[in-house]
Amino acid sequence: MPGMIVWLNGTFGAGKTTTSGELVRLLPGARIYDTEEVGFMLRRLRCLPPVKDFQDWKPWRGLVVETAVHLLDQLGGTLVVPQTVLVEQYWTEIRTGLEKAGIRLHHFVLDSDEDTLTHRIDTDSVEAGARQWRLDHLPRYRAALPWLSRAATVVTTSGVSPAHVAGTIAGTIA
């Protein structure tokens, strides 16, 4: 069996990173696969055209899939991916690549109300420097929510702990 991916989508402040940590404690053989690292690697290449978001580079999407395939081939188990993807075409490319590789994919969107998201972003001491950037992405997330709701299981994170959210997700995929 080639393994499984649990993809946690949603906007910044929805709880993807914290929930991922909780989820790996609940799922035997699970580990976090941070696809942003692929983007950071690509940013070092000066030959790619400048973009505002590394997801705009087609190589990012392909390498996310290929890296997942190789990690699961080597390690087995489950990869938990806390990554916002708001462009439907990009998600389709990633999903299709994983499906072609025979990887079981569970896609969840962590969703919170606007007040909760704003509060979490305002009080996040880890990424305090990205506050405005994160707030500026809330309208893009809301615009993407219709297709995300069709493509994933939406899990509400307002008023519940990350451990509860992780338990809900773990129970869904069991």
Automatic annotation (TrEMBL):
InterPro entries: P-loop_NTPase
One of the Pfam families matching this protein, by short name: AAA_33
Source domain of life: Bacteria
Protein name in UniProt: AAA family ATPase
